Amino acid sequence: MPTKLFAVEQVLYGAAPFNKVRLGYNSAAGCLNLLLPGSTRGALQIASGLGDLSGPKVSLEGSTCTVGSAVKAMFSDEAAAARFVSCLGGRLPAEQAKAEEQQQEVAPSTPPRAASNAAIDDTPPRVKRAKRSLVDVVAEPMPKKL
Predict the structure, then answer these.
(1) What pLDDT score was predicted for residue 100?
(2) Cβ atoms within 10 A of the Cβ of 49, count?
């Protein structure tokens, strides 16, 4: 699958700003590359592991997209930012709010067992058989006091 390119107004990689650059997303490799205009050395990989559950989190706030903690991309409009987030596999704010709402709506049921009580078995301990029955104890004569 070819790399998808996105025109970006500004990218902050850590604290370093890059203006009027392009971001390339390679879905097969799961990496995000920074393409500088006029560069003869190719691209700079700025994020990897995209598309995995353990990869960096992708979020969107208006026309600004954040990838992990080190990359912040500012697009010219919100539609371009939304296309970028959906390409990376992130959730749009409307989808994220809907998913959180669905998680909160839980049917009423018995509350889950606490972790500390999970090891305790629900069945009571086995009753031991008495050595003497109640009839034997009542029929036995009482000892005389001295």
Answers:
(1) 60
(2) 14
Q: Are 72 and 11 in contact (CB under 8 A)?
A: yes
Give the SS3 label for residue 91: coil
SS3 39: coil
Q: At 89, list the tokens.
A: 């596999």
Average pLDDT, consecutive stretches of 10 residues, N- to C-terminus, the chain (146 residues): 86 92 89 90 88 84 91 93 86 61 64 60 73 72 71
* Rg of the chain taking only CA atoms, in angstroms: 33
Residues whose CB is less than 8 angstroms from the CB of residue 58 and which lie 6 or more positions away in sequence, other chains included: 50, 65, 66, 67, 85, 88, 89, 90
To the question of pTM greater than 0.85 for the whole model, the response is no
What span, in angstroms and rounded, lies between the C-alpha atoms of 105 and 4? 37
pLDDT of residue 135: 74
Contact between 9 and 19 (Cβ < 8 Å) = yes
**78 vs 65: CA distance, rounded Å:** 10
Burial annotation 95-125 (CB, 10 A radius, 16+ → b, else e)? eeeeeeeeeeeeeeeeeeeeeeeeeeeeeee
